[in-house]
User: What shape does this take?
Amino acid sequence: MKILKTLAAMAAAAALLLPAAPAAAADPIGMTSGFYVNPDSLPAVWARTNAGDSRASRIQASIGSQPIARWFGNDSSIGSTVASYVGRADGQDKLPVLVAYNIPDRDICAGHSGGGAGSVSAYRTWISSFAAGIGTKPAVVIIEPDALNGMDCMTQAQKEERLGMLLYATQMFQQKAPNTYAYLDAGNAGWTNASTIAYRLDQAGIDNVRGFSVNVSNFYTTSQSVSYANAVNGYLGTTKPFVVDTSRNGNGRGDGWCNPAGRRLGVPAQVGGGAEMLLWVKTPGVSDGPCGVAPSVPAGTFDPNLAIRLIDGV
Assistant: This one.
């Protein structure tokens, strides 16, 4: 008996020297009971405050009542703003989808959605606070739409600076938001070729986060987007999960990217569907800029006429 006790003690001591088994990967989908519907999304607020408008009920039924990502930009209180938002979702046992959109020189090459943090240090503070605001609550985050694609007009030094900021962002979500699925944005099927975007994703820290997003604010079909994402994975040499923005891809791309006519709402948010998730990342009815069928509507502004066109596919 004494020998058995000694052996048991030795085994226990040896176990203490072994590395701990890795913790199970966080699964915010499994931690929640569906996607969060923000009652204060732009279309929901418009429908509520314009109840007498003949378009209001249709916009609320088709768009305002759906799970839509909330976009977050420059905000000196970003940590508490994010904490409040994910807290409301968590209180309903729902999964919120957030977009971090504050990279310096944002949309520098196209210009319609300019802005962003004023410096690298300001961005690092902002994105760190963003991740900390989520903390241990379940969430999905799309990191900086277009940031990796919209670099072609930049100098090499500017490109390296941006990649460094995105790398820092992925590290912050990895360290401070353990129950978040974060996805670096990888553009769309008609923009940067798959080999180039795979290289940029690697430099920006794709291994630190869940995966990547495609088709954000664009119109390519889900099948086109899945094919593109699979090609990106081929160049990455791995199989990273990806999500597809289906908010406006019901009729495919058509002609142009800035408020084009003839587009339609796509499949509402769901798990699966050819990707890890299909999401409404772009808010349907929000203008891409003063262009296309909304020549006087600034980027980021909700327009009921754009919303109705998406509902009707015209």
The radius of gyration is 21 Å. Residues 156-176 form the longest helix (21 residues). The beta strands are 70-72, 97-100, 139-143, 180-185, 211-214, 242-245, 270-271, 277-279. The CA atoms of residues 219 and 249 lie 4 Å apart.
